[in-house]
Amino acid sequence: MIALKLPTLKKNYNASVKLSKKKLLIALAFFGAITLQAQTQVVNSRNIVVSRVGDGTTPLVANAPSANVSLLEFSYKTPNQAAPLKKIELPAITLSPTVPYEGQISLSQDGRFIAVLGYDKPVGTATAECILAETKKVIARVDANGTVDNSTKFTTTTNGAVRIAVSKDGAAFWAAVNNVSYLPLGASAAKEVVTRFNNTRFAGLFKGQLYTQAGFANLSATAEPLPTSTTTVKPVIAQTANNNQSFAFLDADPAVSWNNTGYDLLYICDISYGISKYYFDAASNTWMAASVGQGNAYYPNGGTSGIIATINAAGNPVIYSVSSVSLKGDTKLIATTDKGGRTGAIKPESTVLAKAGENFIFRGLAFAPALTAVE
């Protein structure tokens, strides 16, 4: 096992998500899920929303221009679903079918909104034009009723592909386009807050703390938990040899807690080599590697472009993932139950929930939003 020494991060968890008994059952009008807690925590029944690029007709070939984007909702447990439960088109956003890091989506920390980051460009725009600094990027905020707010449009200081936008409550966003920028809802100017990487692949909000991930670089936490101006970052886990994309923290053991967050389990997906698993060892104050670059039964040596995770009723982690980029229409939404225990290597039991289909490609995923904020 690999021991990874951790620094002490600034503690600020006033925005931590807390379960309320009165909110254990939340009816969803649009996405139709039962939400118990935002992002990654114990959830027994929760539908999955996936971003999909393409129109089903135009071939997705190498160097294809920008294409349509839609959100699809699937059951969290039904295998081989032929059609989504719900679908919403995002006509104000396009993405490149061939840039593998685009199209990640996120659920706001309060559980009410999905954020999708894309280009304010028409279908058919060349990728080289989309990624220019002067090209407007747009954040679509989608609520549980399917209402879309496209009012947040901005340019960047450097050329780069869009990655992901994350939010605490839908009122402001942290958007990753090379660097990470802060924008209130409806803003037209972005304030760069994390400039260290210039190649940010993913950003995540977990219990009031912003984390960033770059390819072949550390998973890091910002010094200011929710920065609105330039800040520094502190490494959580060294990942310089991995082509990482997204990550998910979990609380698998209530008796173990990293930095008072409650988190003791971490999954990181690699766009080339699958999913890695780390557990926190309190005695040594280190994250230990249980599995590095291990996929699941459907792509044991293949890549993964996005993951979210939860704990099921039996106490086992369940990882929902999108198989890595393919232009053949065979990208998949997969549910993997890890029965390896908290400290053991991933022992996967996997089920394909849905396939993108011909001339479509899945990109990112998130748990379905709720009508009411999770407290």
Describe this entry's structure for a reader.
This protein has 375 residues and is an all-beta fold. The chain has a single domain (3-367), classed as Neuraminidase, CATH 2.120.10. The protein contains one helix and 25 strands. It has one helix spanning 127-130, and strands at 3-5, 48-53, 67-74, 86-95, 105-107, 113-119, 137-143, 148-154, 164-166, 172-177, 179-184, 191-194, 200-206, 209-214, 219-222, 233-237, 244-250, 265-270, 274-281, 286-294, 304-311, 317-323, 332-338, 348-355, 361-367. Strands 1-20-19-18-17 form a five-stranded antiparallel sheet, with no helix packed on it. A four-stranded antiparallel sheet has the order 4-3-2-25, with no helix packed on it. Strands 5-6-7-8 form a four-stranded antiparallel sheet, with no helix packed on it. The chain is globular. Residues 1-44 and 296-301 have low confidence and may be disordered.
Which class in CATH terms?
A: Mainly Beta
Euclidean distance between termini CA atoms = 37 Å
User: What spatial form do the alpha-carbon principal axes imply?
Assistant: globular
Order of helical and strand elements: EEEEEEHEEEEEEEEEEEEEEEEEEE
Strand content: 35-45%
What's the β-strand tally? 25
Return the domain count. 1
Poorly predicted runs of 5 or more residues: 1-44, 296-301
Helix residue percentage: under 10%
Query: What is the CATH topology descriptor?
Result: Neuraminidase
